[in-house]
From TrEMBL:
<dbReference type="InterPro" id="IPR020846">
    <property type="entry name" value="MFS_dom"/>
</dbReference>
<keyword id="KW-0812">Transmembrane</keyword>
<feature type="transmembrane region" description="Helical">
    <location>
        <begin position="36"/>
        <end position="54"/>
    </location>
</feature>
<feature type="transmembrane region" description="Helical">
    <location>
        <begin position="129"/>
        <end position="153"/>
    </location>
</feature>
<dbReference type="InterPro" id="IPR011701">
    <property type="entry name" value="MFS"/>
</dbReference>
<dbReference type="GO" id="GO:0016020">
    <property type="term" value="C:membrane"/>
</dbReference>
<dbReference type="InterPro" id="IPR036259">
    <property type="entry name" value="MFS_trans_sf"/>
</dbReference>
<feature type="transmembrane region" description="Helical">
    <location>
        <begin position="66"/>
        <end position="86"/>
    </location>
</feature>
<feature type="transmembrane region" description="Helical">
    <location>
        <begin position="195"/>
        <end position="213"/>
    </location>
</feature>
<feature type="transmembrane region" description="Helical">
    <location>
        <begin position="7"/>
        <end position="30"/>
    </location>
</feature>
<keyword id="KW-0472">Membrane</keyword>
<keyword id="KW-0813">Transport</keyword>
<feature type="transmembrane region" description="Helical">
    <location>
        <begin position="299"/>
        <end position="320"/>
    </location>
</feature>
<dbReference type="Pfam" id="PF07690">
    <property type="entry name" value="MFS_1"/>
</dbReference>
<feature type="domain" description="Major facilitator superfamily (MFS) profile">
    <location>
        <begin position="1"/>
        <end position="326"/>
    </location>
</feature>
<dbReference type="GO" id="GO:0022857">
    <property type="term" value="F:transmembrane transporter activity"/>
</dbReference>
<keyword id="KW-1133">Transmembrane helix</keyword>
Length: 338
């Protein structure tokens, strides 16, 4: 399983490798709106081929009903929380976040009693699954905004154009793509929790390395740190996903994958929300001009410090999951048997 997951993750990171470079070129020559045009042009055929080629894969049990209310509650909750974080530190954003969190509690209560939940909350009674998912949430919370922060830093402080900035940033996902298959195979031989925890530790070191960025920081140092971050994330991602899928029975694979996707979304949202909040507190809602560069640098350093500390808690969560194996895999239906 680890080898297959590693190959899948590699495909994802190849896309991430191409993204910053293509995005930089499009932004420089055609404007930032062109990025969305190209994404749509590529996304529509991808949806078509997925439906055409994977039709039998998502054909579920006939007669089962979709949890419509649960889906609506989840969509509304995530929308409110995401919008609230994006509006920080505006006063109304606090109430939007609170309303979103309340809806999440209502959603959880509903999912616990509905016959066919869209999100099986009881999976989180499985310790290995719960802590592996928490580790994924923390990892995305600590790393998703890295590209955003460095893109601004490279353009404002270093004076690079979007294309060159994208070319520099591509070093991180290239490292991820190169080592994800190795990490996946390694997690088949060595306890996945150990490999993933080492990956989280390496990522934390890389984030701490970004806390000293200044106007005179060599580009070689930045690229080296990006490579270190990419290596750490590769060591974490495939083994962590392997641990998650090994902690549940095969019939729960779809639900487990969906839960991990939710953790990823929440982590990405929290990461960007924290970065936005730090910028708002240090700079405010102003255009970044040369006179604001010192405050901008302080914001970048503060954000990376926060992310590095968050990643330290991720190491704890990763280690706390315990041992996982295919032989001991279990789901919510038999969680009390062991």
């Amino acid at each position: 399983r680890g080898k297959a997951i590693g190959i899948t993750v590699t495909a994802v990171y190849i896309g991430l490798s191409v993204g910053p470079l293509v995005g930089g070129v499009l932004t420089q020559y055609f404007g930032w709106r062109s990025v969305f045009v190209v994404s749509t042009a590529l996304g529509v055929p991808a949806i078509y081929f997925a439906i055409w080629k994977l039709n039998s894969e998502w054909y579920g049990a006939p007669g089962e009903k979709l949890d419509v209310l649960g889906s609506l509650l989840y969509a509304a909750a995530v929308t409110l929380v995401v919008y609230g974080f994006s509006s920080l530190p505006a006063s109304e954003s606090f109430w939007e976040i609170v309303a979103g969190l309340v809806l999440i509690l209502v959603f959880i209560k509903w999912e616990l009693k509905v016959a066919r939940p869209v999100f099986n909350v009881e999976l989180f009674t499985n310790r290995s699954f719960a802590f592996s998912s928490l580790a994924a949430l923390i990892n995305y919370s600590a790393t998703f905004a890295v590209t955003f922060l460095l893109s601004l830093y490279l353009q404002y402080i270093k004076g690079f154009d979007p294309r060159t900035a994208g070319l520099i940033l591509v070093s991180q996902p290239i490292m991820m793509a190169a080592f994800s298959p190795f990490a996946g195979r390694l997690s088949d031989r060595i306890e996945a929790r150990k490999v993933a925890s080492i990956g989280m530790a390496v990522t934390s070191i890389g984030l701490f390395g970004m806390t000293i960025l200044g106007s005179d920081t060599p580009i070689g140092y930045i690229i080296g740190d990006l490579l270190l971050l990419g290596f750490g994330f590769a060591l974490f991602s495939s083994p962590n996903m392997n641990a998650i899928m090994s902690s549940v029975e095969p019939k729960f694979y779809g639900l487990a994958s969906g839960a991990v996707a939710a953790m990823r979304l929440l982590g990405q949202m929290l990461s960007m929300g924290l970065a936005t909040l730090v910028f708002s507190l240090h700079i405010g809602r102003v255009k970044i001009t040369p006179e604001h560069y010192p405050a901008f640098l302080r914001s970048v350093n503060a954000a990376f410090t926060i992310f590095a500390v968050i990643c330290l808690f991720g190491i704890i969560a990763s280690l706390a999951r315990g041992r996982t194996s295919n032989e001991t895999a279990r789901g919510p239906e038999n969680r009390d048997e062991s």
